[in-house]
Write a structure and sequence with these properties.
Helix Hairpins, flat, homotetramer, 274 residues
């Protein structure tokens, strides 16, 4: 009990920002999630020309508020962790920085419009908060099943791509440039559009023989969708019985995540967990 | 026995309208179902301009008949239940009222055309009668499986939407307004159209690099459809334990077993089965 | 043994035409299958205008040959069965007749062109021969699984249709006639095109709000495809262990089919099987 | 041990080229894979007109280098095997030859442009190297499952095609040539496009009744995709427990492949394996 009272403000901040086991930690995650979604909405609305013309000032000020909030959060993240450099050069550390900078750049450079799109990277930050989703208990088993079937699905997708290249080349020879199949890459693009049953219709076969081959591709695509589905189904069925529960703690020393529920020491560096 | 005979007309009415265990109750549900479907057909046909011009009077009178029938049903529902207010402010109570009112409004207001569309809400009433469907015995286990996999599927759909927002933003940057990707929301709409393999073709990538990214989105969409399917499959497999395809009769003459359901004669000795 | 030798030519003919357990019976089925496929090819080629202009005589004579062959087969079928009327008014009896008549009619009536399309019904006859497919042993279990999950899938499809009607009506109100949603039936058609991920693109939402609703429909359609798949998967998994073998015999007395392998008596009328 | 030292250079070459169990064998396969993919990229880029105009010399020289490398590989393959004729007339032997010849032909014949497309056949060679993929251990069980469900899936695809022919013919009668359904084969093509949920939109129904039938086809197609998925799912689930490990050795005597891991003698000819 005494140990808990002694925890410095840094440790408390770490608990709030990096973990989601305490009430404050959960609240922080929820607020962050709302802020990220709001900022994404801003980026979206800004891209709609007639909205940007009408509400330019409102959108601009909102964007500044969110940028400053994210900057404060970034500084707090750096301050509250024991090895700041590890965080700064981690995947999320770089994204946190990249999605905050563009607005500041716009002060110094005119035409930094293209950097603005970087702000969309903020959405990736949602995935960090989605450790929240582990509380649902559902996505955890799902991830294990998906990891187990990853190799098979990659082999399958590789096979689909090879098939599309071969079939696209065949269609390029059959239909030719006069029917829209102007080059092999474009024909392969068409084959992928068809095989995956998307079917835009921007390119479509015109010759009877081309339509015959296209029919075969469609039926193939309709049939082989069964393969990844079968792989994942069987994997999930298998994993439906035995489960591993992981909590959302992250080590305050080395930032390792994925600790077993009830673990007292970090599996990575051996330091004590809260 | 005496208690049953004493049941007031209110209780009998409640049994007929709200339940489906008695013959009268089932009959009421079937009639209501037919009336709802007929009224939906009317709403549909009215919306087809050349049909409305030709048969306006017939459609108008039919609509009045159905509106009056539904009004009577509404009043009976209010009268026969013990807590009328609870029904009136329940989900179905509000729908029952909203789908009846528009026709009456057309007497007092000119141009209440827009309220007329509310009548389509009647279709929602079908779901109430679909408690009938539980009698088929099939949809019941299905609902249990779906409820069990609801959390996982929501997580999955949330993930798909995030992916579409990120990919849509990327395509907005690659293709730009000159190729139809005029804003980020529109590009996200395109990403959803592509990821779900719908593929209208109203917006389609034109640059080679855009088509390359589009191909990746399609193959992703083709692959990750496996996930919800796998979730539901395993859940249903788990809930699906007992089945009856063959009956348990054994021939009283030769003791052969495994007779087909509905078989009248023994497949082995030809003697009559019970 | 003696009984078998005594079998009259009628019984032998019945064995050849209606069953597929003997060598002659299998050969007959294969020849019939080829003839049906050839006749379907003829119907197809005739419908292609420039081919019909070029090879009219060849196509016409071939059609006559096949029509006469099918007429002979029809007569033999009537002769060799014990209850001819039952066959004549059975599903396949009517199809056999309807698909033979149109050519004869063309002798007496000019402009019996429309009856000619009836010949396409011949393709339905393929399904009768497909009892051959039962020899693969594969489609048998499949059919049992499908029959078992029929009720659930019908409930599901019914639910999809209701959903499409509601969503179509909503889109009719949002988009309106100026964006191609000219009537509710047409909007429902669009909702089905979208929900099933077909996505022609002949009708597509133009307003931002319409595109938002459309996105929801697509994601819904992408997600709920998991339901029928899950139903069938679990059903097949269940039936994969315990199998029921059914042979292709049909009772010479009452024409009942689907007898268990090794059954000596008809389960329907109790008469002896061959 | 002594035996291994005595192995002639032919046997060593065989080990390197035809097998992937040794380090040199794996390296050879990886280099070959890269060369094939590079050559396919060349074929693709050559087909893009503006790239071919710009970098014609670079593409031409690269193509010559790869052609000569493949020619050397072909000669080594012939030399290192004990029965060269068997290799030369095998499936891969013919592909190896056909994909090398076109470039040489271009020296002697002007306008041998059409033979150039044969070079795309090289992609088929990737599948030979994909015996590498067996090391992932994943695709092996997958192949067993797919082989087991092959018969069922063929029956299913056959059924889908019959359904498309019947539905296409019906739509030809309903919609007719004025709505784009100009002939039965074209209508069948449309039915396949719709049933498989591809939905190009190059042909689409215009009459209300045609749209009604189209809706039924779509819902059918949406529902019956469940069948192949269910078949494969249950098959993979079944095979998920018991596995057979096969290594990549091929017999130096008879070229038989698919030896069990640890096998010392060829199952086909009985000669010793390395």
């Amino acid at each position: 009990m005494k140990e808990k009272l002694k925890t410095s403000w840094k440790e408390r901040l770490h608990e709030i920002i990096y973990e989601a086991d305490t009430r404050a930690g959960k609240l922080f995650d929820v607020i962050l999630l709302v802020a990220i979604l709001a900022s994404i909405l801003l980026v979206m609305l800004e891209s709609v020309e007639h909205l940007d013309n009408k509400y330019h000032n409102f959108l601009n000020i909102s964007e500044w508020i969110i940028t400053i909030l994210f900057s404060i959060e970034y500084i707090l993240r750096v301050v509250s962790i024991k090895k700041p450099l590890k965080y700064i050069f981690s995947f999320y550390g770089i994204i946190d920085l990249l999605s905050t900078i563009p607005k500041y750049l716009s002060l110094f450079f005119i035409g930094s419009h293209h950097f603005a799109a970087l702000r969309a990277l903020r959405l990736l930050r949602v995935f960090r908060i989605l450790k929240l989703a582990r509380y649902i208990g559902a996505s955890n088993k799902l991830l294990i099943s998906l990891k187990a079937s990853r190799a098979k699905i990659l082999v399958f997708l590789f096979f689909v791509i090879i098939l599309c290249v071969i079939l696209g080349t065949i269609m390029y020879m059959i239909e030719g440039a006069e029917n829209g199949f102007t080059s092999i890459p474009r024909s392969v693009y068409w084959a992928i559009v068809t095989m995956t049953t998307v079917g835009y219709g921007d390119i479509a076969p015109h010759t009877p023989f081309g339509q015959f081959i296209a029919s075969i591709i469609m039926i193939l695509g309709y049939g082989i969708i069964a393969i990844p589905t079968g792989i994942v189904s069987s994997e999930i069925t298998k994993n439906n019985s035995n489960s591993i529960d992981i909590n959302t703690q992250s080590c305050s020393h080395c930032a390792a995540e994925g600790h077993k529920d009830g673990a007292e020491f970090c599996y990575n560096c051996g330091s004590k967990l809260n």
